[in-house]
Description:
Layout: H1 10-23, H2 29-40, H3 53-65, E1 67-70, E2 75-77, H4 83-99
Antiparallel strand pairs: 1-2
Amino acid sequence: MTSGHPHAYSYARQKLWEAIHALVTELPMRQRLGHAHNSLLLLVPSDFPDELRPRFEAIMQELQERLVTFTYKECEIDMRAPRSKRVARQIFDLYVELRGGI
């Protein structure tokens, strides 16, 4: 799956970790998803191995479809449970898979 090199995909892992960190704060979900979106916005599909690119693209498409306001620092995603929880879980699962498992 992912390269055996220790630094392969390290930037993507860092940005996914930042997104996960944003998702576990006490802010309202629309703001948490907005902060996660801002972290992921810095990534491009080529930052991921081929088999994970469609998953990254699907997450970004779903977040961008629900984007309410956007500046680099302030962003909100208009999404409610259970959809918001599913997207948050997809971000976490992508991170885990990029790391090669738990």
